[in-house]
Amino acid sequence: MAKIAVCPGSFDPITYGHLDIITRGAKVFDEINVVLLNNASKQPLFTIQERMDLIRQVTKHLPNVKVDSYQGLLVDYAKEVGASAIIRGLRAVSDFEYEMQITSMNRVLNDEIETFFIMTNNQFSFLSSSIVKEVAKYSANISELVPPIVEKALMEKFK
C-alpha cells in the first residue's frame, strides 16, 4: 500500500523553504499531495489557480508530487485522498506552539492521520511568503528566496 502524505499551506507564493519541505517529504513518502487550503485570515496576492500552476512548475521534477486545492478541513481532504500523514514545516521554535494546536485538533478530528514535522534547512529559517511579497513589492532581489518562475510572477504582480 502506498504511503500518501498531504503537505498543506497557502503557498502565496511558494518559496524555496516550502520547496525544501516538499522535496524532503517526497523522499520519504510514495506520494505527496501539496494542497492549497483557504485561510480566511490571509488576503492572497495570487489566485488559487495561479498558485497551483506555480507549484506544479517548480515541482515537475518530483514525479510523486501532486497539487490540489480544497475548501474544508485538512483531515477530510487527507481521508479523501487516502493519506495517512500530514507534513508540516517548522522554521523556528515560535512555529511550534501554533502547529501543536493544529495537530492536536486534527488528532481529535481523525486520530488515524499522523503529523510529521520537518525542520526547514537553516538557510530558509527566516523565510515566509509574507516577507517575500513585502521585499518583492519594492523590486528587491529575491532570487535566493524563490524559484525563477515565482520571481517573474511576483515582478508581474507588482508592476
UniProtKB/TrEMBL annotation:
Keyword Ligase appears in the UniProt entry: no
Any Pfam family the entry gives: CTP_transf_like
Annotated site residues (Transition state stabilizer) in this chain: 18
Subcellular location: Cytoplasm
Enzyme class: transferase
Pathway the protein acts in: Cofactor biosynthesis; coenzyme A biosynthesis; CoA from (R)-pantothenate: step 4/5
One of the record's GO molecular function terms: pantetheine-phosphate adenylyltransferase activity
InterPro entries: Cyt_trans-like, PPAT, Rossmann-like_a/b/a_fold
rRNA processing listed as a keyword: no
Swiss-Prot/TrEMBL cofactor(s): Mg(2+)
Domain of life of the source: Bacteria
Catalytic activity: (R)-4'-phosphopantetheine + ATP + H(+) = 3'-dephospho-CoA + diphosphate
Entry keywords, A to Z: ATP-binding, Coenzyme A biosynthesis, Cytoplasm, Magnesium, Nucleotide-binding, Nucleotidyltransferase, Transferase
Positions that bind ATP: 10-11, 18, 89-91, 99, 124-130
Binding of substrate, residues: 10, 42, 74, 88
Domain Cytidyltransferase-like intervals: 6-134
Enzyme Commission number(s) of this protein: 2.7.7.3
UniProt-listed Gene3D superfamilies: HUPs
NCBIfam families per record: coaD_prev_kdtB (TIGR01510), cyt_tran_rel (TIGR00125)
Function: Reversibly transfers an adenylyl group from ATP to 4'-phosphopantetheine, yielding dephospho-CoA (dPCoA) and pyrophosphate.
Subunit structure: Homohexamer.
Annotated family: Belongs to the bacterial CoaD family.
Designated name of the protein: Phosphopantetheine adenylyltransferase
Organism lineage string: Bacteria, Bacillati, Bacillota, Bacilli, Bacillales
